[in-house]
Amino acid sequence: MKAIAYSQTGGPEVLGLVERPVPEPGPGEVRVRVEVSGVNPTDWKSRSGATTGGRLPFPEVVPNQDGAGIVDAVGPDVSGLEPGRRVWLWESAWQRPTGTAQEYTVLPVRNVVPLPDNASFDLGAVLGVPGMTAHRALTVAEGGPSRLAPGALDGRAVLVAGGAGAVGHAAIELARWAGAEVVTTISSDEKAALARAAGAHHVVNYRTENAAEAIRKIFPDGVDVVVEVAPAMNASLNEAVLALSGTVAVYANNGGEDFTTTIRPLMTANVRYQFMLLYTMPAAAKTQAIEDINAAVTAGALRVGEAAGLPLHRFPLERTADAHAAVEAGAVGKVLIDVR
């Protein structure tokens, strides 16, 4: 089979096309014929060594956590995932040497999820890191909810920072499906159009208007949850717009690794900062996210494509290096690899 692999950390150029034997599933494992592989920032950061201190965790690594495909074979003690079943994959390369940038991959059964009949492989390839991260961000506030479903966020105001990104897009769609009123901050008219297509009720361009004033005009009592991609850049804005007992759910460090905030106003407001990373989330939270995401997909609440606010950028498997470079360069939308 064809696979993309690297044996040293570095730039996209370390990725190469190789031939490898088709792997066999062991007990509790599933072999999937990968159709589409999704590329996330954590994929290129792992490849570059940015998140591993430059260390290569295995002698050879096949990148990419997310993907979608068809069950090809199952090992002993596996039920409910018969060959031919369409599935989506998550954490494929977490603490494992092989991800989804290959024609076949073998995973523990817990990392292989049935894909609803109404969902495309493209959608399946964006449900892992973006979808599960967005779900976690919307379910960490004091008093919950811990699950998302229609009505779960009724009466809540949600601010999504960077609504044109993959996690921001999923957060807008999930929050709206669950009943929240959503405002998002963007930096251009192009991104504003994408955020509106995703379902944001309000869009604020932080480059052309006073974002804090605009958001406070929309929500005089403040926002209950901030889905935050750039805490260093947005600390002052969040302080200005948070409601009492509001939560900032931080899932990335865009714009800087360190940030400073004013303590007393956040104390007075009983604000919570919740830092989060999919890979180290509690197991129960991951299970809940998977179940709720599949319910949202079945309901048609999660979508991909430019008309849905998430443009797709496609690359063939042999151009995985270009796909990684596109994500690293900040491509607006979602980068996918057509494995077949």
Characterization of this structure:
The protein is of the alpha/beta class. Helix content is 28%, strand content 25%. The chain contains ten helices and 15 strands. The protein has helices spanning 41-48, 121-124, 127-137, 166-177, 189-198, 211-218, 231-241, 263-268, 283-298, 320-328, and strands at 2-5, 16-19, 29-39, 66-74, 86-89, 104-108, 112-114, 157-161, 181-186, 202-205, 223-228, 242-250, 272-275, 312-316, 334-338. The longest helix is centred in the C-terminal third of the chain and has 16 residues, at 283-298. The relative contact order is 0.16.
The portion of residues assigned to helices is 25-40%
The biggest beta sheet is recorded as:
7 strands, mixed
**Helix-strand topology string:** EEEHEEEEHHEHEHEHEHEHEHEHE
Helix tally equals 10
User: What's the alpha carbon Rg, rounded to whole Å?
Assistant: 20 Å
User: What structural category arises from helix and sheet content?
Assistant: alpha/beta
Shape: globular
Note the gap between the termini: 11 Å
In the predicted model, the low-confidence regions spanning at least 5 consecutive residues are: none
How many DSSP E strands? 15
Oligomer: single chain
Beta-strand residue percentage: 15-25%
**Average pLDDT figure:** 97
